[in-house]
Design goal:
Structural class: alpha/beta
Protein name: SDR family oxidoreductase
CATH architecture: 3-Layer(aba) Sandwich
CATH class: Alpha Beta
CATH superfamily: NAD(P)-binding Rossmann-like Domain
Keywords: Oxidoreductase
Number of strands: 7
Radius of gyration: 17 Å
Family: Belongs to the short-chain dehydrogenases/reductases (SDR) family.
Number of domains: 1
Strand content: 5-15%
Strand order of the largest sheet: 3-2-1-4-5-6-7
InterPro entries: NAD(P)-bd_dom_sf (IPR036291), Sc_DH/Rdtase_CS (IPR020904), SDR_fam (IPR002347)
Order of helices and strands: EHEHEHEHHEHEHHHE
Length: 234
């Protein structure tokens, strides 16, 4: 890879961790970036990467990214959902967190690393969701955030083509800690999301990230939807 550098946000677990491992196996120098520094350090030690403490909702934390001298690939993976409330029961704090993390966090990190990405004619991969192309009951807050991410991604692609490539990967049902985090550690509710269904794994999405990142610089994958075989409707 000629010492090409990748930054993966939300790299301490789930899709982010799997992406760090897949990219490192392909020869990338990977910055494992997340709030849990000790976990990032453990992963980085295993893959020969670099740990980076990062909270995408904190501008001061994000500004430290300016110290990186080179970035060829940015994977904006940090995100998540809070609860499964109908709009009539919406919690404004949950909505604010989802928007701060999924949308403004992506904006902050991408803006902070823009000079490096521009210089490298790099690639940005935003991890969206099929929740950003359709909606479901109780998902209005998360749907709104992921629809926002899709709008951000499409605009950025048009603004920077052909100098920076921009891709959105939209997974369907992936069995990770996503639902545990969504339901504040309620294991029973989280397990019910996946029980009796085919489920993607974090490695499945990481393989897609690795593939997109491996393509030659004249190729841009705009949007990639990935769902388990039994999830035919969004």
């Amino acid at each position: 890879m000629n010492d090409k550098v990748a930054v993966v946000t939300g790299g301490s677990a789930g899709i982010g961790e799997a992406a760090c491992r897949a990219l490192a196996a392909d020869g990338w120098i990977v910055y494992v970036a997340a709030r849990r520094l000790e976990r990032c350090e453990a992963i980085a030690a295993e893959i020969g990467g670099v740990a980076l403490e990062l909270d995408v909702t904190d501008q001061a934390s994000v500004e430290k990214l300016a110290e990186l001298s080179r970035v060829d690939l940015l994977v904006n993976n940090a995100g998540g959902a809070k609860e499964l409330d109908y709009l009539r029961d919406a919690d404004a704090d949950d909505w604010d967190w989802m928007y701060q993390t999924n949308v403004l966090g992506t904006m902050r990190v991408t803006k902070a690393l823009y000079p490096q990405l521009k210089a490298a004619k790099g690639l940005v991969i935003n991890i969206g969701s099929i929740a950003g192309t359709d909606a479901y009951k109780g998902g209005s807050g998360y749907n709104a955030a992921k629809h926002g991410l899709r709008g951000l991604t499409r605009a950025f692609r048009r603004e920077e083509a052909p100098d920076i490539r921009v891709c959105e990967i939209d997974p369907g049902r992936v069995k990770t800690d996503f639902s545990m985090n969504r339901f504040n550690g309620d294991a029973e509710r989280a397990a019910a999301v996946y029980e009796g269904k085919l489920n993607l794994t974090a490695d499945d999405i990481a393989e897609a990230i690795r593939w997109v990142a491996s393509l030659p610089p004249h190729v841009n994958i705009d949007v990639l939807n990935i769902m388990p075989a039994d999830q035919a409707e969004r």
